[in-house]
Every structure is written in C-alpha cells, then in structure tokens.
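Instructor's aside before we start: the two examples that follow are unrelated to each other. I chose them only because their records fit on one page, so don't look for a connection. First example below.
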Amino acid sequence: MKRYILALFFIITSTIAQTEISTEIYNLIKQLDSTVPITEQSFAKNKLISMGKDALPYLHKELQENKKTYIRIQIAWILGHIKDPSSIKVLEEVATGPYFNLNKACVMTLAEIGEESLISLERLKSKTTETNLLKIINDAEIKIKSTKTNTLSLSNSSTKKNKRK
C-alpha cells in the first residue's frame, strides 16, 4: 500500500511539474508575437533556447500549427540555435508551405543544424519551383559543405601539429 501511495505521489508530482513546464513554454511562445516589445521577444527567445530539448515538442507543434507566421519564423530561428536533428522533419514539412519568408527561415535553420540536413534539403529542392527558394536551398547546402570542409581541415592541421611534437 505504501509503495502504491508513493508511486501515485511521484506520478502526480511529475504531472504537475510537466504541466508547469508546458504552461511556461506556451507563455514564452506567446511572447514571440510582433505586437510584443522586442526586449520581451528577445527574453522569450533566449529562455526557449536555454530550455533546449525540453522545449522541442512544443516548438515543433507551434511551428506546424500556429496561425501567426511571424511567430513561426521566430520559432524556426530558435530551432536554428538549438540545432537538434529531431527538428529536421518538421522544418522540411513547414518549408514547403505558401509563405516564402517562413520557408526561407526553415531552410536557413536546416543549414544551421548541419550535415544531417543535407538529405532534407535535397528533397526540398525536388519539391519546389520557386527560384528564390531554390537559391536559398543551394546556399544552405554550400554552407553545410563548407563548414564540414573547414572542420575537416582544422582537424587535420591539429593532428599534424600533434605529430610534430
């Protein structure tokens, strides 16, 4: 009986904590609106970035479903700072929508996530006929590939320095 009560206590406590976190995240997302002073928007963005992976399920949902394009663009920007590969699928899906600036933000975020996004960018290329978006996708691929090349050359040069010692 004691174990049952203790387990129930932990479940209730965990549920309350999760509800508080989700409420906080949704309140922060509301602060991303263009009608909110820029300082409050910046605070909300920084707080969501610092929450990292804990905020991702909520950010992904709002990126897909929020009615305000401005908020969705801000969420894409936040995801670009969190840089978690679990965002790739959602970003790719949203990047094929009717709003160019949102599509652009999603593609740029895919570039920030890095090499894991290359396949997604290739799929986006095959899905779009919008020439401006195609240019942004190409630029994103170049950025990822050049970052990879720079990382490899830095890695090789530090290996050579270590061998000389």
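Example two begins here.
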Amino acid sequence: MKHISHGSHRISILDILDSSLVLYLRKMPAFFIIFLLVNTVSAFLFWIASPFIPKLNLQTISIDEFLVQLINYGVYLLSSLLPIFLVSWIIIHVGGSIVMSYTIRIYEGGEIGIGEIIEKMPHFLGRIIAISFLVGALTITGFILLVFPGIIMLVVFSLAIPASISENLGVFESLRRSRLLIEGFWWKAFLLFLSIFALLLVAILLADLSLFLFQPAYRSLKALIRVIMISLIEPIYPISIANFYNHIKRLKVPPEIKVWEHMPSRALETEVKICYNCGQILPYDAVYCPNCGVKVR
C-alpha cells in the first residue's frame, strides 16, 4: 500500500478545479439547465409555503425567555417546513447526481447525451436518496456533537454517490467504497470542499449584493435573478466531486501488467543441440552440422 500513501502528492486541487471548470464551460448549457430547473422548483416550493410561515415576534423580557422563544420558533418553523426541505433535498441531490453521472461518463471516455443519463437515473434513484439521507444524517449528527466529526463524515462519504453510479454499488457498499477511496486523500478532499464552498459563498454574496439595485416592488424578479446566478456556479460542485473521484480511482487501481500470448521461451535461448552423426555441439538454431554437413533440422 506504499504507493497509495504517496498518491495524494499526484493530485492537485487547483488542477481538479481547473479541469472541472473547463468541462463545465464546454458543457455549460446542459449543466446550467439542470440546476436552473432544480433551483427553480425548489424556490417555487418555498414560495408556496411562505404565506404559511409565521412571523417572528420576540418579546425581549429577559435573555433566557428570548432564547426560549427563539428556539421554539426555530423548532416550529423546521417542523412546518420539513416536507418542503425533504422534497428540495431530494430534487437537489437528483440534479447533482445527473451531473455527476454525465461527468463520470465523459471522463471515462463515453460521450453520450444528457437525455440518456436522465433515462437511466431511475435505476439509481433509490440508492442516491438513501445515500444522501444517510450521509446527511451522519454529517448533521457530527455537527451537533462537535463540528469536526461532522466535517469528517462529510469528507469521508463524499464519494459515495459517484461510486454508486460508476461502479453500480449498493448503499452500504458505496459508503465503504468512498471511505476506502478517501483513505490517504482526506486532506485533499477537505481542501476541495473548502474551495467549492468558498466559490459558492462568493457567488451567493455577489448575487445578493447585485440585487440591492432592484426596488422592493421587484421582489419576484430579484428572486429569479438570484436563482439564475446561483445555478450558474452550483454545477461546479458535482463536476469537481466526480472529477476528484475519477482521479483517485485511477491512482488506486494497480497498473495493468500485459502478458504477451506468444512470448518466446527462455529455454530456447540456451538450448544446445548435438549432431546425431558426429557428436558435434551445435547452436540451438542450427540447420546443418558445420562438421559433417548432415541436416539436423
């Protein structure tokens, strides 16, 4: 396993992001449309639920009562919007999985249409949902206990979905495969997540800052522009994860050793012949004996 421990030096996060960006720009219409549809549906669901969200009316009698009211409001809000959160979670992960599957096929040398990927997605849908919920639950539990365990869970199982899609693995096999692939590349995976998070954060901040130019009356237009701007940068995440998975998978697969079918035997190189007529020692490729002239082959 020595080659694996040093394999992380052969992966550059900048190269991963650069090649992912190149692929994204080359296939931008397909990737952008997928996330535009996903984010539009998600925003529409929250827009439908917005009239039913109670307004926050805190009474600042004391700090303890203020915190209790704030926690109660958060619990009520979360329980009220839980179905919307779950549906949005599933939609986003399905969209990201389509992009991952398309990216993996491109890196593996198969140039197929995005429509064919979407047609095959129902085969992976159950596994993708189960994996996303398991990883999400483990990550949230880790963040509740301590921040660091949550980060570990997020990084260790980050390649479960691409592994399931590429290698056609089950739920727990995909989690195990992701853990094995990340082994020796934990720091690289963390840096990749940090870089992608920074890009998404900058995109969201720029989107929100640019929308200050609009008047409050154009609230719907502001929301639409925000969805478009976020959808432009969001595909970088699944593309980079699929790219990272492809790099690690190639590094951890041992090189194929080709054995020639008709390799000459080494015994022939040292084989010695003896002339049956005069006893002269002959080379292995001799046809006639140089001493008596008898044909020996």
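Residues 1-7, 259-269 have pLDDT under 50 and may be disordered.
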